[in-house]
Design goal:
By secondary structure, this protein is of the alpha/beta class. It is 40% helix and 19% strand. The chain contains eleven helices and 15 strands. The strands form five sheets. The chain has a seven-stranded parallel β-sheet, with helices on one face. It has a two-stranded antiparallel sheet with strand order 1-15. Strand 13 (184-186), helix 7 and strand 14 form a beta-alpha-beta unit. Helix 2 crosses helix 3 (70-78). The longest helix is centred in the middle third of the chain and has 15 residues, at 107-121.
Length: 284
């Protein structure tokens, strides 16, 4: 049997977006401590992404260094913005002296971060803002309620349409949901099957960062991935993304790249259909 996956998702129940989007983290730099990239190249990648149907771009004010910033590239490349383009940002992390986002904002600092991102992007309102918690560490171990409530105040004022949380465990997710409506979760990969199932049941988007690997963790078995890719005449990246989208209709993929070639390769995954056998071979 062939597994047909929906192409779109209703974010917050009222905003339809394509499930295969674009992550802006690698536009300015390959890694937070790596060299900056040419701005012209990032602008070209963004314009091509939208040409190919991307209408969901995930970014953050801490994506970049000095004058090379993802948000400025997005504004230069894409304004005036298309009516259906959703730009999501993350707030919470504060860059340290080395530029790595290792600190965390207090509740009182979140408004300034949201307003700074709005100015940088030339927006009046965000369709989606995530509270990113935990610095560069994994999820867990701290309360999110006070900070999430601060963002909910901005939602009530009309600066934000939908709220999300990022890098959270089950307890933090529950705490956020008890504080304000949660429309999206952005966590590493899609390995937390219980949280993913909870999101699917509640109509909440699950957006894995590093969808193809990164941060020292690979989400797929390389040998299995290679065998299925060879059988389908596709690349391993395409099979990985197609498999991710097939896991749940609540999953949104945001692969990021600074390369036009990789962009086209990644977005072609949206047209790749996997069979039950393909998925069984991938996941054992």
């Amino acid at each position: 049997m062939t597994v047909m996956t929906p192409k779109t998702f209703s974010l917050g129940g009222d905003l339809t977006i394509n499930r295969l989007g674009f992550g802006a983290m690698r536009l300015a730099m390959g890694t937070f401590d790596g060299p900056t990239r040419a701005t012209d190249n990032g602008i070209a990648v963004l314009r091509r992404a939208v040409e190919l149907g991307v209408n969901h771009i995930d970014t953050a004010g801490f994506y970049g260094r000095g004058t090379v910033r993802a948000n400025e590239m997005i504004r230069t490349a894409l304004t005036p913005y298309r009516d259906d383009l959703v730009i999501a940002t993350k707030v919470g992390p504060l860059p340290g002296p080395d530029g790595v986002p290792s600190g965390q904002a207090t509740p009182d600092q979140l408004r300034g971060l949201v307003e700074a991102d709005l100015r940088a992007l030339g927006l009046d309102r965000f369709e989606l803002v995530y509270l990113r918690v935990g610095g560069m560490t994994g999820p867990g171990g701290e309360s999110v309620a006070e900070r999430f409530a601060a963002l909910d105040e901005l939602r009530a004022e009309g600066l934000i349409r939908h709220l999300g949380v990022s890098n959270v465990d089950a307890a933090q997710f529950a705490e956020a949901r008890a504080t304000a409506p949660v429309s999206a979760v952005q966590n590493r990969h899609a390995s937390d099957t219980a949280l993913l199932a909870e999101c699917e049941e509640a109509g909440i988007a699950y957006v894995p960062y590093f969808p193809l690997g990164g941060g020292g963790v690979a989400p797929f078995d390389t040998e299995r991935l290679g065998k299925v890719a060879a059988r389908l005449g596709a690349t391993t990246a395409q099979v990985g993304l197609a498999s991710l989208l097939a896991r749940s209709p609540a999953v949104l993929a945001i692969p990021g790249t600074g390369s036009l070639e990789h962009l086209e390769e990644n977005l072609a995954a949206g047209d790749l259909t996997l069979s039950d056998k393909d998925l069984a071979d991938l996941h054992g």
